[in-house]
Every structure is written in structure tokens, then in C-alpha cells.
Amino acid sequence: MELERSPLALPFPDMPAIEGVELRVAQARYKDWDRADLTFIALAEG
Hints:
- With 46 residues, the chain is mainly β.
- It has a domain at 19-46.
- It has no helices and 2 strands.
- The protein has strands at 21-26, 38-43.
- The termini are far apart.
């Protein structure tokens, strides 16, 4: 689903990577919609 960006929307800043954190998203398909509805976060030990 592609939405048109509002001309009033502020730009989203680039975020620096956080060492030891991995973010993943996937489509679990719990419902009929076609979007990422599952988030997985892995944290390194320490």
C-alpha cells in the first residue's frame, strides 16, 4: 500500500545504528492485508 506523502510532513531524520541491536520485520499474514505485521528485535548479550 503506497500512500502519498503530505506536503506538510516533516522529513524523517536518519537514525544511527545501535551496536548490538538488530531489527527485522516480516509479513506473518495474520489478516488479509499486505503489510509487515510482525516485528523481531534481537539484542546482543552484554
